[in-house]
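Model: Ready when you are.
Researcher: Fold this.
Model:
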Amino acid sequence: MPGTGFWCVGAVLVAFAAISLHQEYSQSGDLPRMAADIGTLREEYQKLNRSCFLLGASGETGKELLKQLLQSRLFSKITLIGRRKLEYEDQAYKDVLQEVVDFEKLDDYASAFQGHDVGFCCLGTTKGKSGEAGFIRVDHDYVVKSAELAKSGGCKHFNLESSKGANKDSSFLYLRVKGEVEAEIEEMGFERFSIFRPAVLMVDRVESRPMEWFARKMMVPIAYMFPTAHTVPITCVAKAMLNNAVMPSEKKVELLENKAIHSLGKLGEADAKGKC
């Protein structure tokens, strides 16, 4: 006869599967109706001659988003805002502008945030890497202050990479901070504020994080069985951000959960490089 531990593990697995199925099929991934296909929308957007800035270009999402920005040619000018200058050997990056700022004294660098139509924020760290105080300083203070300066500098559309489960009332530090940032930026009144809440990001990090590497490997079979419930490829997040930017929206605040990110990232996949 199996022991108590066997039945406990079985019960946990059954409960996890039930929750995963619920998330897989109940979470909305519906997209707004489009008057044209995504290719046409991108072509029309290119003609608007808009500029953008990117925060967090050295991170995994930021690196992929920058690559997608350059391939798409949606923006006439792309500016990276960061604490150090990034070096690129590929000629595709030669026209990317860079503004080096001190995030501890952002008010002194307000000019770096001026003159951009669209902002993409992928800035973030982890508690394990920076400690609790450092995590709050980067993921909350730097992000909120950057959004404030962007708004003052004329940015119309601010895109924020947040997290699945973000909630300003959460008892978990990570989710609480993400939720607080969402709420505070919403109060700034951007013409359009898009919040992306990806689940576990599937990517092979350059930076060594053994526990994250192990967790991602464990998530591979889960991602296969429940593709939109708990994970999302990082390429999908980047494509979703760009596809969403070119799509007209009547909402001032858009909340895009993991399933919607999957749906957005797959638009135009036949013509895109790589799969979501």
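Researcher: Now this one.
Model:
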Amino acid sequence: MAIPHAASGQLVDVQPLAGKLSEGRTVALFKSEELEVMRLIVPAGKTVPSHQVKGEITVQCLEGEVAFTANGLTQPMKAGQLLWLAGGVPHGLTAVRDASLLVTLHLRK
């Protein structure tokens, strides 16, 4: 069964999950030929190991807190903060508290 994605022009709710955050799952919200947007759920203590992608990305913390590492620097990222990374930059994170992140990827071919 295919994963449902938002259609062009369709509203998508990305409000904080609050009390339901611990039950949340990572989900791709939409994907086109050049762009993918996902809601990444990271439980406290979980690490997303360092990796890199070809295209540029943005990461917006919707709720919770993560320690985000890129360019040799680890910095706290809290709700309401956003970062941008050029393509090819190694990055990873560890959730300090349960976190929900909005991740946008430019899909380079």
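Researcher: Key takeaway?
Model: The chain has one domain: 22-106.
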